[in-house]
Amino acid sequence: MSQEDCLAIVLIEDNPTTREAVRLLFNGTTGFCCRAAFSSMEDALAHPWPKAPDAALVDLGLPGMPGTDGILLLHEKYPDCVLLAFTVYEDDERLFAALRSGASGYLLKKTPPAQLLESVREAVRGGAPISPQVARKVIHFFRDTKKPASELQALTPHELKVLKLLVNGHTYKTAAIELNVTANAVSFHVKRIYEKLHVHSKAQAVAHALRTGIVG
User: Which residues pair with 12 in a beta bridge?
Assistant: First the structure.
């Protein structure tokens, strides 16, 4: 498989051992390639990225600018690149900060290699992978909050159906099949959902839906 056919990954990781190990994992796996690896957020922002990376793994515990702040800037600079937090931290504060900044997933560095590769594939397909250890925190944190009437009224019945499918783990493609519409139609509804809920990514929309209970 050529470099043009692979899932192109960018890595932002300050630990040289981890950075090299992850770079070798992607470059040594059919269907993946690591296009660039940076040791700091400042370095990643200062240098132009290779053409059209599909996803970026972003360490949160970087020297200098924190990964959560960098994710927000990278989301604005490379809106078509899926940004995934890649960290040793399992606490609520960093988890929700990363999701609010625009991360589409939250993966722990202790994730087994095969699972890490599959999580990146899932994210590029439109999923929102979160390591099981921290996914439980999301559910527990959001379980008991109440539905705001204003948001229930703002979303149309069709938008609520789309949001519920996203919460249940559907990608745009599988949601389109479920609703018997095109993937472009689902994408249009998702953009409207983002605007109405004041979120910027699928992960944020799912987290918001779980927190507020706007889908049953």
Answer: 38, 58
